[in-house]
Write a structure and sequence with these properties.
Layout (H helix, E strand, L loop, with lengths): L13 H7 L9 E7 L6 E3 L7 E3 L1 H13 L4 E6 L19 H12 L4 E6 L12 E3 L2 E3 H18 L3 E4 L6 H11 L6 E8 L6 H7 L19 H13 L3 E5 L5 H10 L4 E5 L1 H12 L5 H15 L3 E4 L2 H8 L2
Parallel strand pairs: 1-3, 1-4, 1-12, 4-5, 5-8, 8-9, 9-10, 10-11, 11-12
Antiparallel strand pairs: 2-3, 6-7
Helix pairs in contact: 2-3, 3-4, 4-5, 7-8
The protein binds ligand PBG.
Ligand PBG binds next to helix 6.
Length: about 325
Amino acid sequence: MFPIHRNRRLRTNESIRSLVRETTISPNDFMFPMFVAEGKGVEVPLGSMPGLFRRSIDLTVKEVKELWRLGIKAVNIYVKVDDKLKDNAGKEAWNKDGLMQQTIRAIKDAVPGMIVMPDVALDPYSIYGHDGIVENGLIVNDATVDALTLMSVSHADAGADFVAPSDMMDGRVYAIRKALEESGHHDVGIMSYSAKYASSFYGPFRDALDSAPGFGDKKTYQMDYANRIEAIKEALHDVEEGADIVMVKPGMAYLDIVREVKNAVNVPVAVYQVSGEYAMVKAAAERGWLDHDKIMIEQLHCIKRAGADIISTYFAKEAAIILNR
Ligand code: PBG
């Protein structure tokens, strides 16, 4: 009761504030999503994601070395696949010499300690831009899961530490776990995009990979943003099916979900601060409307405070540079 309790005592100066601070962030918390393209010496700036590039493998590896030097321990890999390699089944996804598989090998060769988490979903490989196989205008679940298991094993064969299914098909975590066990990849983990919402925040990502759905939307597999309890169900199912890490995506607008999932599961929770969130901060900062670095650091704290054990963020490199100062 006032004046016995004066809450401001604990905010008097930065020293006491740092002593009582409940949440801290460090480069150990981050994963950096990277876009990879065919070729050599290729570095294409991403229009709707200022400061980021789609790079060929050689320059991706160079960047990964720099990330490692900054203390970042994990990368999420997404590839831009040539249109002529796309089909309905996404067969290129499990080509052992495909762009993803080559990228994984190159990164693990150059920086063995870096945790490599390739994206497992068919959309970059699909002529329809959908995360699954299309039959009669529908995204079919079980045939897609079979394809995702082949894809996951090929990533593991190439040296991936974790596979990261982002497709939202039912039963894929169990099927992938089983396939990894049967192929001897006992130590390859699964980070499941468990509560992934059908979100307009993914727009800039789809620009980067040219992977927007050719018809319809992703609402028959990605979650309805109006739902909360369903996210817990998804996360619990994935843990039961063998997920080592569960993810909530997007981040900032979904922090209530992050907390719910964190309280419900006994595995680490990852949060993906997605492309649209990044673009919003960049755009406002370009106009001088927001202080870029302060907003970035604040948002990362808020995501961690909400319950994130790991944050996948396009800000990882910039934030690490600031945190290392
Ligand atoms: C594809 C995938 C998407 C993202 C990650 N993996 C896009 C989508 O589902 O359409 C979005 C990430 C971002 O916006 O940063 N399965």
